Amino acid sequence: MKTIYNVCCRRIALASALGVLALPALAQDLVYTPINPSFGGNSLNSSHLLSIANAQRDATARDADDGSGNGDGTGGGGETPGVSDADLFVRQLEGRLLSALAGQVTSAIFGDTPQDSGIVTFGTTTVSFDRSIDSIRLVIADSLDGTVTEIIVPQLVTGGS
Predict the structure, then answer these.
(1) Which of 10, 73, 82, 150 could form a disulfide with 64 if both were Cys (CB 3.0 to 4.6 A apart)?
(2) What was the pLDDT predicted at 3?
(3) pLDDT digits (tens, 9 = 90+) for 32-47
């Protein structure tokens, strides 16, 4: 009984394989359709492609500014005229200190013992935060130049307890 079953299964598998191989192959030619309307593409793509190109051009222009304020477009690679090693060190130190400040604020809001509100001061910069049920409001104020930035971060509100 077992051998007859195995023989039948093998015949069915062989017939299925031959049936699949006997089907005609269907294919069609690959046709390239350009996207850019300048090369024969859809004319409705022109405004989208133009806005992408403008955004890339603006980003490249900002990247080319080396931060020295002269806008010479040197890209900041290698030696930058007018920027000494001491200036670079001060920038890096300020960046690290501001990163540590951001870590303290994040820890106060989301850490092991999160607070509902608080104020963190660093030099002339004051960061205050208030937590509500559905969002966290951050206010960053610089007393030196009077700029105030407000950031509202939504919180995940779950229905269960």
Answers:
(1) 73
(2) 63
(3) 888 887 788 888 878 8
Examine the pLDDT at 70 and tell me if it is beyond 70: no
Q: Which residue has the tokens 């509500």?
A: 132
Tens digits of residue pLDDT in 51-64:
888 888 777 766 66
Q: What's the alpha-carbon Rg for the chain, to the nearest Å? A: 32
> 3-state secondary structure string, the chain?
CHHHHHHHHHHHHHHHHHHHHHCCCCCCCCCCCCCCHHHCCCHHHHHHHHHHHHHHHHHHHHHHCCCCCCCCCCCCCCCCCCCCHHHHHHHHHHHHHHHHHHHHHHHHHHCCCCCCEEEEEECCEEEEEEECCCEEEEEEEECCCCCEEEEEEECCCCCCC
CB 73 within 8 A of CB 65: yes
Say if residue 141's pLDDT is above 90: yes
3-state SS, one letter per residue, for 56-68: HHHHHHHHHCCCC
Q: Which amino acid is at 134?
A: D
- Gap between the Cα atoms of 125 and 128, Å rounded: 10
